[in-house]
Structure formats: C-alpha cells, structure tokens
Amino acid sequence: MEFITANFAPIMFAGLICFLLLGFPVAFSLGACGLTFGIIGIELGVFQSSVMAWLPQRLIGIMANDTLLAVPFFTLMGLILERSGMAEDLLDTVGQVFGPMRGGLALAVVFVGALLAATTGVVAASVISMGLISLPIMLRYGYDRRFSSGVIAASGTLAQIIPPSLVLIIMADQLGKSVGDMYKGAFVPAFMLVGCYVLYVAFLAIFRPASVPALPAEARIYREPDGSGGYRSLLVLMVISFVVSVLVARHLTDVHSWWSGQTVTSVATDEKVVVAMCGGTFVALVIALLNKYLRLGLLSRLAERVTFVLIPPLLLIFLVLGTIFLGIATPTEGGAMGAIGALIMGWARGRLDMTLLKQALAATTKLGSFVMFILIGATIFSLVFQAADGPIWVEHLLASLPGGQVGFLVAVNLLIFFLAFFLDYFELSFIVVPLLAPVADKLGIDLIWFGVLLAMNMQTSFMHPPFGFALFFLRSVAPDKPYVDRVTRTVMQPVTTMQIYKGAIPFVLIQLVMVAVMISFPNLVTGSLDKVQSYDLKSIGDQMRESLQPQGGEASPDAGYGSGEEPYGGTPAPGGDSAPAAPASPEAAPAAPDADAPASTPDDPVKAMEEALKRAQPSN
C-alpha cells in the first residue's frame, strides 16, 4: 500500500492507458478512471474526500465556458457551406484555372483545401468532398494514385491549423489563452505549410511530370468564342485587386488613426493581410457585378466564374477572421456571424432547404456533444490527478530532461507524434496538453507558441498510417473495385489502401519539417501577436510620490513613505524604525488646499495614481 500511495499519480496515468486499451470510448474512460482512482485515493488517504465536492463546480464551469460556444458555431458554418455545394464549385473552378499546367489539379486541391479549411474547419467534410470530386478527375487524366491520395488527405487536414480551426479553440481553452491570439499565432505557419505543399507539387511537376500531367484541352470548359481561355481579363482583374490590396495595406495606419482619433504608427501583420485582401476582393466583386448587370463585356467567362465562386467564401473568411483580428468580435461572436453568413450564402445559391438544415444541425449537435463529454471526462480525471500531485510528478519527469527548453520541446513533440498514432486531436488536447502546459510555462515557453506548435504536430494524427482518420475518410470514398469512368468510358483500376498509406508519408514528413522550423524560429508565431506593453514601475512610483506631496513647497529628502516617518502625521510607513506616533491633532493636520492652488495636484490618492499611470510612458 505504501508503494501505491507514494506512486499514486503514475499508477493513475497507467490505469488510464489500460482503460483506453480495453476499447472503451475516451470520454467514459477518462471519467471512469477519475472516479475509480478518486475512491481509491480517498480510501488510502492520498487526499481528502472533500476533493470530490469540487467536481460539481468544475462541471458547471464547463457549461458556462463561453469560449467553447465557438465550436458548434464554426462547425455549423462549415457544414452548411460544404453541403450547399461550395466545395464542388470551388474544385471545378480552380481546377479549370490551374488545369493547363502540369500539377494544376493538385494545386487546385491544395488551394481549395486551404479555402475549405478557412470556412468549414472540419477535416472529415474537406477530405470526403475532395475525395468524391477531385480523385476521379485526377485518376481520369493519369495522376499517380499514391500522390493523388496523399495530396487530397493532406489538403483536407489543413482544417486543423488554418483559422478558424476547432483544435485551436480547444487548445486556447486548455492553455488559458485567448482564441484570437491563438488564431493570430497560427496565421503565418499555416500558410507556410500550404506553401510547402505547393513547392512539393512544383517539384514533382519538374522532376516527375508523368505523375502530374496537365489537363487536356478538351477538358477545359470555360472558353471564349474565339477559342481562347480567357486568362487575360482574369489576370487584369487580379492585378487590379492586388493593387487595391497593396494600397489598403500601405494606408491602413492612416485609416486607424482617422478612426480612433489618435496617431497609430503600426498595425499587426495578420490584421493588415486580412483587411487588405478583403478590400481587394471586394473591388473585384464590384467590377464583376457591374460587368454582368451592365453587360460591359469586360470579363471572360472564366474570370466571371472565378469571381462569383471564389469571392463570397473569401469575404466570409475575411468577415469572420477580420472581426476577430481587429478586436471587433470575440471568436464566439465571429463564429455566430460565420454561421449566419453561411446560411445566407446557401440561400443565395438556392440550395438551402429544411433537409440540409436538419442534417447540418444534427451533425453539429453530435460533434458538440462529443466534445462536451470528452471535456467532462477529462475534468473528472484532471481533478483527481491534480489532487494526487500528478502535475508535480509530470513536472519532475519533464523538467529534468537535458537541453532545457529545446530538449523539452523535442521530447514533447516526439511524445505527441507517437500518441497521435492512437489518439485524435480532441483526446490529445484534453488529456496530454493540461499536463504539459504548466511545465512549459515554468520553463519560460510562450504558451501561444507552444499551443500552435502542438496543433501543427497534432495535424499529423490525421495522416499517420495506419490509423490516420483522414486516410480512413479517403478510403471510404476512394474506389475499391474496378469501375467504368463516366467521361472516357474506360475501365479504371481501384485505389488500394497501401497506395493511400504510401501517398500520405511525404506529407507527414513535410509537416514534421514545419514543426522543426517552428521550434527553430518561434518568431513565426510570436511575431504575429500584439506586443505586450510593460511599464516602468520606478517612474510610476516617482510620479505618484510627487503627486501625493503636501502643498506648499517641496518635500524634504527624508519625507515620504519608507523613511521611518509618517507622511502626513499618521502611522509610520512599513520599514520605518520609529515607534508608532499618536494620531495627529486637528491643529497639526495639513491646511486645506487653497482655492487658487494648481488643480494638477489632486488631494485624492486614487486620482493621483490614475494621473501618474496616464503620464507613465510604456516601454516595449
């Protein structure tokens, strides 16, 4: 019994592993493990029975957590957009734009995956949509089966890291940080990962062109009467949009200064990018609308198609992320606006009906319930684990690793990488992250950087052969038997499970490279965050003492707090050596301030403190 009492925390953690290996659902495994070891701990005297009395308050706190409301809102937004046909339109249009170049269909999948990630935020919806739409087309025109499977699965998992990602919301809640800061921190690394995917496609297009052929001429449907592709007007429209974006970005500080009435010298990079792109896309949409309804004939069919398909979801993304980055709306309010915007877009497309709405609401309810039950189970487990001094055991285990911060980060990311073979990101966020966060904080690691780093690593949990969920989603829609292509009428061979696994490996390696880059260059995350202002406390103290001096001349050097004498005739300040003095008599009290005395010296200490804080200059 003494051994169990002395090693209660590690035995409890091992018990959780046993519960999970028995095949019980994670939420119930967490709750059952917490309650079981809670009873054992009380009986052995490891902690008091009053510990379990804290549980109802913790569960009520979960229900009152406003941050978690963003999860169902963003889920509903994504499901409405996905089921209203947005994915099909995006893949068809972007595929036509990039089709004439080698690897064009793969580039379309990557870019559409990023767009779906920024709108749906749900991996399953993105992978299944692109698997159903893009995979048959890529197979039809001779794309390598392994590469096609890998690029679809990897692009679908971008929903893990590109805001508004659900895993970033959960990560912010578990780390006690702002969701908006987590989104800002993930902004640059997420699009760097998209750039890495693009570079990999370009590498194959140069060195293995047979595996990524161009779309044949007969497959390009948006052509002009003269037979041209219509790229000239699309390029002109893109140039106009780009110029407007640059002008908006360059003069954004002036706009902020005019809006706030104060001089603004700098604007955060993520905010500048989002607002600038919003301005550029809005101008492109206005030009396309004028061209269509005034019959100006300025734009080609391809340019009009691209504008009307791409701009609405882009504006929705900028509406949601822009209001969050600008501080106008909280992530929960941004998710609510996104859900309303998705409903409006579905209605405008004529594809929103009660059947679609019921399906989306039912799926949202299931996911929300899933998250809530896991969180309740994790709360029960963490309550008992903390009462048994489990965090201290974890801290001693991890803080003693060689290499300091770098050694800790390498060990933690290796742990997350291997746990991701068996657990998904919800389970990792609720079980492992609360154990690691206190240790990271004590080592001086920025928790926003730490959270984005773990989110990037957890993204590989969807890509790990043989347990990656994205691979399972793709397997469910990929052809597993020979079939006849509906366009070419030729017999197509199936996509095997091993081909899907092999295709995922290069993209898992790319993600791990990004993890290493983020460890080496933390400024990729922290550089997007607002600078924390620090104040010179000595200067504030000097100004407060100056403001609190009695009127009628300068105070003597020995007067004031900490000198051993009472400042106004009362009890001496702490640290003085003199005995307590009797209360000052009315005659000895300071004279009332003269009516003509300067108004800048307040007689209220609170007001003096406020004025001193206003005069203090922040130093970054």
From TrEMBL:
<dbReference type="GO" id="GO:0005886">
    <property type="term" value="C:plasma membrane"/>
</dbReference>
<dbReference type="GO" id="GO:0022857">
    <property type="term" value="F:transmembrane transporter activity"/>
</dbReference>
<feature type="transmembrane region" description="Helical">
    <location>
        <begin position="67"/>
        <end position="85"/>
    </location>
</feature>
<feature type="transmembrane region" description="Helical">
    <location>
        <begin position="370"/>
        <end position="388"/>
    </location>
</feature>
<keyword id="KW-0812">Transmembrane</keyword>
<feature type="transmembrane region" description="Helical">
    <location>
        <begin position="105"/>
        <end position="135"/>
    </location>
</feature>
<dbReference type="InterPro" id="IPR004681">
    <property type="entry name" value="TRAP_DctM"/>
</dbReference>
<feature type="transmembrane region" description="Helical">
    <location>
        <begin position="7"/>
        <end position="28"/>
    </location>
</feature>
<feature type="transmembrane region" description="Helical">
    <location>
        <begin position="334"/>
        <end position="350"/>
    </location>
</feature>
<keyword id="KW-1133">Transmembrane helix</keyword>
<dbReference type="Pfam" id="PF06808">
    <property type="entry name" value="DctM"/>
</dbReference>
<keyword id="KW-0813">Transport</keyword>
<feature type="compositionally biased region" description="Low complexity">
    <location>
        <begin position="569"/>
        <end position="603"/>
    </location>
</feature>
<feature type="transmembrane region" description="Helical">
    <location>
        <begin position="147"/>
        <end position="170"/>
    </location>
</feature>
<feature type="transmembrane region" description="Helical">
    <location>
        <begin position="504"/>
        <end position="525"/>
    </location>
</feature>
<feature type="transmembrane region" description="Helical">
    <location>
        <begin position="231"/>
        <end position="253"/>
    </location>
</feature>
<feature type="transmembrane region" description="Helical">
    <location>
        <begin position="306"/>
        <end position="328"/>
    </location>
</feature>
<keyword id="KW-1003">Cell membrane</keyword>
<feature type="compositionally biased region" description="Basic and acidic residues">
    <location>
        <begin position="604"/>
        <end position="614"/>
    </location>
</feature>
<feature type="transmembrane region" description="Helical">
    <location>
        <begin position="190"/>
        <end position="210"/>
    </location>
</feature>
<feature type="transmembrane region" description="Helical">
    <location>
        <begin position="34"/>
        <end position="55"/>
    </location>
</feature>
<feature type="transmembrane region" description="Helical">
    <location>
        <begin position="273"/>
        <end position="294"/>
    </location>
</feature>
<keyword id="KW-0472">Membrane</keyword>
<feature type="region of interest" description="Disordered">
    <location>
        <begin position="546"/>
        <end position="620"/>
    </location>
</feature>
<protein>
    <submittedName>
        <fullName>Tripartite ATP-independent transporter DctM subunit</fullName>
    </submittedName>
</protein>
<feature type="domain" description="TRAP C4-dicarboxylate transport system permease DctM subunit">
    <location>
        <begin position="14"/>
        <end position="524"/>
    </location>
</feature>
<feature type="transmembrane region" description="Helical">
    <location>
        <begin position="448"/>
        <end position="474"/>
    </location>
</feature>
<dbReference type="InterPro" id="IPR010656">
    <property type="entry name" value="DctM"/>
</dbReference>
<feature type="transmembrane region" description="Helical">
    <location>
        <begin position="408"/>
        <end position="436"/>
    </location>
</feature>
<comment type="function">
    <text>Part of the tripartite ATP-independent periplasmic (TRAP) transport system.</text>
</comment>
<keyword id="KW-0997">Cell inner membrane</keyword>
